[in-house]
Every structure is written in C-alpha cells, then in structure tokens.
Write the structure tokens for this entry.
Amino acid sequence: MQDALFLMPVAPRAGSAWLLEYLSAPEATFPKRCRLTEAEDYSRVFKNRCSVSGALFVCYAAPNIHGQTRPTEQTRLGLAVSRKVSPRAVARNRIKRVIRESFRQSKQKLNGLDIVVVARPQASKADVADMVKSLQTLWDTLIKKCKKP
C-alpha cells in the first residue's frame, strides 16, 4: 500500500521548468499585438455591428485595419466584463481567462478580425465547460457571419 503512494503522479510545483517553458512558448501567451488596446479600436468594432450572441456572451467583430487602410491578417481580442456581470473581481478574472484561452485556441480560424467579447451576467454562474462550449459556438458563427472571403 505504501508503494502505491510513490507511483501516483505528483503535480509539478509552480516554479518548475515546464511552467516556464510553457509560458515562454509564443502560442501560449496573449501578447499586446493580439489585444485591442485603444478606445478607437473598440469604437470601430462596435460601430461595425457584425455581432453574434449567446446566453453567456455577445461577440462583435470588424476587419482588422490596425493603423492601415486595408485589413491585416492579425487577429485581436478585446474584453468587456463589467461589475454587472459579477461584483467579485475573482469571478470576472476567471471569465476573462476562459475567454482568452478559448480565443488563443481558435485564433487561426478567426484570422484578420478584431473581436470584442462582452460577458453577460449569466457567465458568472456558468462553469468553465459551458463557457468554452458557448465561445466555440460563437467563434464558428462569427466566422460564417462576419468574415469576408
């Protein structure tokens, strides 16, 4: 019985090398070039009004013209998770982490769009699996509706 304890896998500590390697991989981060940072960018996306909505989130999209006159291939994400969604910062941050991770995994499909995701209050009560499923559905609908060939 005591030998069985040694066979059980042990989770690596937070300071382990694998974590640093994972976080240093370019596809595992959310760099500034992948974020909407300017108020004008948010305004442009909201004015474009190509949107899809679900029970937990509303997504708005516009072609990415980041400082150029024609669309670029870079995909950028903006988040809007207000205190109306949850008064607790912990819950809001969890929602943002889930959105960023789902975006990171689907970024190649969403190529060339600026996207703003607005969380609805129901998102704070949903579990991670429901949020991921909802976001995947929204990404697929967004591609069909808003992405020009």
Summary: Residues 4-11 have pLDDT under 50 and may be disordered. Helices lie at 2-7, 17-24, 39-48, 89-106, 128-146.
